[in-house]
Amino acid sequence: MKFFKKISMVILLVTILQTSNSIVADAYTNEQQAQISLFKNEYQKLDQTVYNYQNIYNQIPNFTSNSLIGSNSRSYQQNYDQAYKFVRLLFGLDPVVQSQDDNQTSLTGAYDMAAVPRNDGSNVQHGLSNLPKPSYVNDETWRKGITATRFGNIANIVPHNFNNYAKQTVMDNILDFVVDNNNYDPKSVGHRSWMLSQALNRYGIGTLYTNPQSSQTIINQGSQHLAVGYQVFYWGEGFSDEYHIPLIEPLTYPANNVFPLEFLNSNNPLKPVYWSIAFNEAQNIIPEHKPQIKLTNLKTHQVTNILPNDISYESQYGGYNTIFTYLPRGINLKVDEPYQIDFSQLNLKSMVNNKKIDNYSYKVNFFNLSESISNNFDYSNEGKIVYINYLPNYGVRIYQKPGENPSNIFAFHGTSWKISRQYHDINGRIWSDLGNNQWISNDYLTNEINGRIPVGTVKYIKGYGINLWQGYGPSRIFTGRRLQDQTRWKVFKKAIINNTYWFNLGGNLWVEGKYMLVVP
Q: With 405 labelled, which of 118, 281, 379, 429 sits at a CA distance of 20 to 30 A?
């Protein structure tokens, strides 16, 4: 179980293990180079959206006497699914199917924990154990939350006191469980074992971020209100302990062959990342003693023996009957310095064919996964002003990634934008990020003004005004301002959601399209 995780943890955790500045280019095998290229290309496709209470919902939860669990946005669920498939790919595991029913069960568990009016971290409990049910939460919702949190990974997310918002990317959410060093006892890797289960075929994800303006689900930090987050990864009926082959390769962390160095780094020097090896339920071990574990640097030939006190045993997580965790000390991990990891005196025996295994060895070479991001993006035109070049009063669709994940937002012809970075795809097309992962092909950009920025006129009731919103659609938040009838405003983007138009007036300020007439 996790408490008070640092929300500032970025996609790949803050480095405390030093990486090398010099790389031997020909040290990776051809197979490893191909695998690294595949991983980097797949990682590059992952969504980088930072989610908070404003953009994570399709329907916002309501903590009142008429409690409403709400629902996560489809984009959050899809982006989480894509990132989860990528992480399992790193370990050679099959993808797991995401279930909408399980997603709602997961969010119910997060909702119940958030509903408990005690936000010091102790309201995050498996099975909602010893938590008082608020009067406005009905029995069915509470029972569903008990199931979700009993058969799921659970976490709360509390930001630093200088940041009011609980917000993470989907990779942050997943790595919290996979890196798994935020427990009271960092030696336990139960969350990791469930995320990387060989017996998992279905799952649900539910993440709830609260509004810092709400009095129901906040933490008071002096005079500040801090938004908090709750996450439930629910496996429920998606777990099967039926095995049809005598022996499945153990799950190792780091994985066999090549592995991202960043996944072994910790954002907390008091809680390092433990390595692990896990054998599934088709195997059995009598832990009469701890195994011997030895790491050999195949480049420098340095040998590191893991101390007995740095080896721990646990079981019954994710279908793994035997899990050993261990902590290498005094190792300066570097990219392109392969290791062989040897386990001896395992005393392992298959429950299927009675085959005994005392020794297991594998090799791993490390690489920097994040290198592909900086190397493939072009920052030479950063800060350059460009203009949308399309048709008067029409817009160009914005993509969430270069050429992928089309959004429901369009940038109007004639509007000006500032390039933050560019990307050259494999087809030779250049894409420009116009800020916050708003990607548009350079085919629709020009260096000179080519048309006027559209102007919208408020059409409402004389003497009255329309609401100005932060965001649009179901997740919008009222700014407290209204725009008076017949006033005119520059319009930069339009969004279409559920056949309803919304117009953007700059930044993240939006108005409902039915109350505004836009002309070029």
A: 379
Per-residue tokens: 513: 């399209």
Instruction: Quote the DSSP letter at residue 93.
Output: P
- Alpha-carbon distance of 484 to 202, in angstroms, equals 51
Give the span between the Cα atoms of 309 and 303, in whole angstroms: 18
Q: What is the pTM of this model?
A: 0.67
From the centroid of its chain, how far is CA 254?
19
For residue 151, give every residue at least 6 positions away whose Cβ sits within 8 Å of its Cβ, in sequence order, or none. 234, 235, 236, 239
Residue labelled with tokens 């404003």: 54
Nearest Cα neighbor of 373 from 32, 41, 13 is: 41
3 state SS of 205: strand
How many of the other CB atoms lie within 10 Å of CB of 118? 10
Extract the tokens encoding 99: 């279930």
The owner of tokens 């390769």 is 249
User: DSSP code of 317?
Assistant: B
Longest dimension (CA), the chain: 85
Identify whether the C-beta of residue 92 lies closer than 8 Å to the C-beta of residue 253. no
pLDDT tens per residue, range 175-230: 989 999 877 777 899 999 999 998 899 999 999 988 877 766 666 655 566 678 89
DSSP 421: E
Contact 337, 365 (CB under 8 A): yes
